[in-house]
Amino acid sequence: MAEPSATEPERPHQERADDAVIATRGLTKRYRGGQLAVDGLDLTVPAGSVFGFLGPNGSGKTTTIRMLMGLIEPTSGSARVLGRPMPRASRTVLPRVGALIEGPALYGFLSGRDNLLRYDAADPTADPRTRRERVAAALDRVGLAAAGGKKAKAYSLGMKQRLGLAAALLQPRRLLVLDEPTNGLDPQGMREIRTLVRELASDGTTVFLSSHLLDEIEQVCTHAAVMAQGRLITQGAVADLSAGARGRLVVTTPDAGEAARVLKEQGAADLVVDGDRVTAEPPERDLAEVNAALVAARVRVRGFVLERASLEDAFVALTGEGFDVAG
Amino acid sequence: MAPIDSDDNTTAGEGEELRAGRRKAARYVVPVAVMGVAAATIGLVPALADSGDPDLPKVTAEQLIEKIAKSDVQQLSGTVRINTDLGLPDLGGLESGLMSGMSGGPGSGGDGEGSAADPSAKLTELVSGSHTLRVAADGPDRQKLSLLENAAEYSLIHNGKDVWGYDSQSNEVYHSTAPDGAERPEKDVPGKDVPATPKDFADQALKSVDDTTSVTVGGTAQVAGRDAYRLVVEPKQKGSTVGAITVAVDAETGTPLKFTLTPASGGAAVVDVGFTKVSFAKPDASTFDFTPPEGAKVTEADESDAAAEAPEHGRPAEGDLAEGLDGLKVIGEGWNSIATFDTGAQGGLPTGSEGGDLGGLGGFLGSFGDQVKGDFGSGTVFKTRLVNALITDDGKVYAGAVTKDALVKAADAAQ
Amino acid sequence: MSRAEAQDDRVREPAVATPGGPDAARTPSPLWSLGLLRSELLTTFRRWRTLALLAVLAAVPILVGIAVKIETSDGSSLGGGGGGGGGAGPAFISQVSNNGLFLVFTALAATLPFFLPMAIGVVAGDAIAGESSAGTLRYLLVAPAGRSRLLLTKYATVIAFCLAATLVVAVSALAVGALLFPVGDLITISGTRITYAEGLGRALLIALVVAASLVGIAALGLFVSTLTGSGIAAMATTVGLLITVQILDQIPQLDALQPYFFSHYWLSFADVMREPVYWDDLVKNLGLQALYAAVFGSAAWARFTTKDITA
User: Fold this and answer.
1) Where is the composition biased (Basic and acidic residues) (chain B) (predicted)?
2) Cα dihedral value A132, A136, A142, A146, nearest 10
3) CA–CA separation, B135 and A279 (whole Å)
4) A104 and A164 fall within a common domain
């Protein structure tokens, strides 16, 4: 195991990686068929963040998460979780990580409680004397206390999802990895999960949340990374990411044709006229001048708004394609 | 630096990739190594066990034969392994059918009078294949011979005047009474005339020692954990199929521990009988106790004449087998003796047209024979690794432990 | 190296871990590892499938017992009068009507060639592959159960099942035998008489030997189980291998290979009923089973600890 890398000089990102909860360097996974699932991923998840891991289905999110959890060995590159290398340090890292990977998996013939007891027993650092209390607390936390004695195969999809979450919450964790946690849930269930995530984050737990739903990420995450086709496209604070993309100017007016002409004169590009709405990429100049020009041309303006860019806009700007395109 | 930092050295790149691959492959070394060690153990242990030929004071062949003759081991128990490879065509059921036919019928299907526990039927099984036997003896009155079978056992117990045969598979018992006392116990125990122990074989072999035979001491050996001398008996004449007979004689007691007959043609031994375990302590008296178990079918010897007669036919030795046949002559002497008789059947092999079981059998056997021609005419030679037989077309049979050429020569000379 | 050495990392942990919160040092006791074994045993023996397999095994002695009872109800003894054959039916069956204890041996001889190893094949084949296809394997591993520890636990559980399955057959046969047939002193196959108590002792020894005879196929099944992600495929492969080997063991041309087939010495358990006990084949059997366990156990380990878990 001691394989000194004498050739490797002190790396500049070393300090940054130290307080990162997850840090990967050139993480690559090529499956046996030759398919490149993850390609040179450099991911940094700061401690205390709620980190959105975004990407269409098939973009390599799950493969990345499996590598982080030590389930898949990277083809090359390295991954560090809680400052320790994975998968080598699985034994010390994983007890402090709760995970929900690709949906819950349960023993249908066991009750919800027995499922949790089994997963808790699988953790060699879990004290068997307090196992029942831990399980009861976890069930309580996800609102399954009443259904704990029911066989898991009788659970609805939402209940299974919650039980999976409960398994991730058996111990106090430093990192929670939640892969598509709201998949298959009704809007009420989704809201509950998001509330739970915010709660956990406020306790200081870092949450790594993968999703293909943009608004979900936008609602709960402080940081985000975007993946497409196995590559990391961008990462950073959600606010910075949206700021990177420019907003759009929206003018509401009954004189749409005239408004469009004026806006074009004023240097706005990409004009779209849709009924009484004219949208355009705002010109470089002061928007007050633009408004004045409209008024001067006797365009009756009902509304004049600069719409802030959404994460989706950021994504489209980055990839040049729609979000739902599968990699 | 300290190993604490060692896991910081996870670096990206090709090296890592290669190492990971090598690490994976390295794990498969474990099962391969386990297999290697096992193979080495299986290969080496017998070799190591063999290597220690004991250092014993030199003896001459005469002294050794005398030692065997003087040997008076009354108490003994052990396990005997018999391997017989006569080189008969592997006919499976037919072969054993022939064997039971030879033994006079009992035990063969449909013969209601036979008992599965009949000694003669059981012990002729020893003529082919590999068998494990257990023997125990305590004086002339108490002996036990057990043939170990799959999940079953055939036991032949001689205790005083009772002789019991017990076949555990069918839960059948055979009972006969031997004359009281030690008048001729060896001979009167049914089945005892079927050689089973190395001593039985050795006695047979040493009977034939005469001027056609060379007897030498061929070093020492370890048999069943005991030091032994190897007595090598070889025919001096050419033409015999017998290569050599080796008898391992216990250095202490003079008991033959192992008997090996190797054919002149080389290869594996035709007959290999030896103790794998032996003890000269007095066997537990309960070994010889026998009372028929509840529900067992008991056949008394005098109930079935056929069963009592059977041992006479049960001898595998070719001489005995031929005794009942008319016109038997023995040509030659010593190892090259050839038994000959005239079946009177013109046309050599009985053919199918003559009808009957034998006809079918003959036609079938014909396909295994070699056609030969000579001054005598022509005939068919049937070969095993030890005994060859020539059946001429005019119905004469020549058989012996001699080569094909010797048979043809004998046939020619007889013309 | 990776996962196996992960344990070593614990020693160095203080250098990295920050105090407080979730890091508050949990000092695990080595005994806590047994929690997984306990959980595994509970999970296995609470499965409907496991109980069904055991029920089938328990039914075999009942059927054999009733069949023998009917066959011998006219007072005749089984196999008697049929001539020298006696080859029909499992070993010892001719003695069952005389002594109920023989039903234990008969039942084990009847179930050992197929029913018992098939049950083991199902449980062993499903051990890893079943968890994999249910998806629960990934959660056990991130718990983290540890791959070597999980594999060892699985194997220990399969061995426990071998023992349980054998004892179920033996106990069922003992009860049925005592109920339907006379019991008492019995005759060994060497023709000597032993007391019923000693007979019981030998029956227990035989049950243990039979259970040990299944250790090899258990390891084989576990190895197959690490190769595939489908529990059904692993079970089918293991049972298929079992049948293939049983058939090959009957082909005379392969006699040079046969001593290395895991099933070759299975019936040697009958040697316990000889007087004195004939140990040679029993020892060979146990050695062979240990060899299979070592080879396929380590192959399963090599495979499982380097395998990508994608299900």
Assistant:
1) 181-191
2) 130
3) 108
4) yes
pLDDT in tens, C206-246: 999 999 999 999 999 999 999 988 889 999 999 999 999 99
Q: Which of B114, B151, B297 sits opposite C109 (nearest CB)?
A: B151
> Min CA distance, A195 vs chain B (Å)?
37
- Are the beta carbons of B297 and C2 separated by less than 8 Å? no
Whether residue B260 contacts residue B83, with contact meaning beta carbons closer than 8 Å, is answered with no
Q: What residues in B contact A4, CB-CB < 8 Å? A: 6, 9
- Domain total for chain B? 3
Q: Are residues B40 and B142 in the same domain?
A: no
Q: From the list B9, B14, B24, which residue is nearest A5 (CB)?
A: B9
Question: What Å distances lie between residue C71 and A148, B294, C68, CA to CA?
Answer: 53, 17, 5
**A262, A280: one domain:** yes
Give the residue on A whose Cα is nearest the Cα of C20: A174
Q: Does a structural domain hold residue A267?
A: yes
Assess if residue A323 is contained within a domain. Answer: no
CA distance C45 to chain B (A): 30
Identify the domain containing residue B295 by its residue range: 66-206+265-314
**Are B299 and B339 part of one and the same domain?**
no
Instruction: Please say whether the beta carbons of A233 and A39 come within 8 A.
Output: no
Question: How many domains, in total, are found in chain A?
Answer: 2
B189 and B292, same domain (yes or no)? yes
CA torsion sign for A210, A216, A220, A221 is positive
**Residue B166 at interface with chain C, using a CB cutoff of 8 Å:** yes
B297, B314, B331: which is the final residue of a domain?
Answer: B314
Please list the alpha-helical segments (H only) found in B210-355: 305-313, 318-323
Do A60 and A99 lie in one domain? The reply is yes
Q: Do A173 and A284 fall into the same domain?
A: no
Q: Does C109 touch chain B (CB under 8 A)?
A: yes
Contact between chains at A8 and B9 (C-beta distance less than 8 A):
yes
- Nearest-angstrom CA–CA distance, C202 and C208: 10
The verdict on residue B1 lying in a domain is: no
Which residues of chain B have a CB within 8 Å of the CB of A80? Answer: 10
pLDDT tens for each residue of C169-218:
999 999 999 999 988 888 888 888 889 999 999 999 999 999 999 999 99
Q: Which residues of chain C from 11 to 50 reach within 8 Å of chain B, CB to CB?
A: 12, 15
Among C21, C47, C143, beta carbon nearest to A109: C47
* pLDDT tens-place string over residues A226-251: 888 888 888 888 877 766 666 678 88
For A48-84, how does the pLDDT look when each residue is reduced to its tens digit (9 = 90+)? 899 999 887 788 888 999 999 999 999 999 999 998 8
Q: What residues does A20 pair with on adjacent strands?
A: A46
Q: Are residues A71 and A142 in the same domain?
A: yes
Q: Is the bond into A87 cis (omega within 30 degrees of 0)?
A: yes
Percentage of the residues of chain B whose pLDDT score is greater than 90: 1
| A contact set with B (CB within 8 A) | 1-5, 8, 25-27, 73-78, 80, 84-85, 88-89
Q: How many CB pairs under 8 A join A and B?
A: 44
Say if A315 falls within a structural domain. no
CA of A258 vs chain C CAs: smallest distance (Å): 59
User: What's the DSSP call for residue A10?
Assistant: P
CATH number of the domain that A48 lies in?
A: 3.40.50.300
The pTM assigned to this predicted structure is 0.79
CATH number, residue A259: 3.30.70.100
Task: Tell me the pLDDT band of C259, cut-offs 50, 70 and 90.
Answer: confident
Residue ranges making up the domain that contains A122: 14-243
Taking each helix axis as running N to C, give the angle between helix C215-227 and helix C147-180, from 0 to 180 degrees, rounded to the nearest 10. 140
Of A90, A119, A164, the CB nearest to C3: A90
CATH number at B171 reads: 2.50.20
- Which of C12, C71, C94 is the mutation pick for testing B, counting most B CBs within 10 A? C94
Same domain, yes or no: A122 and A169: yes
E strand or H helix that includes residue B260? strand B256-263
C141 CB neighbours in chain A (<8 A) are 69-71
Residues B269 and B197 in one domain: yes
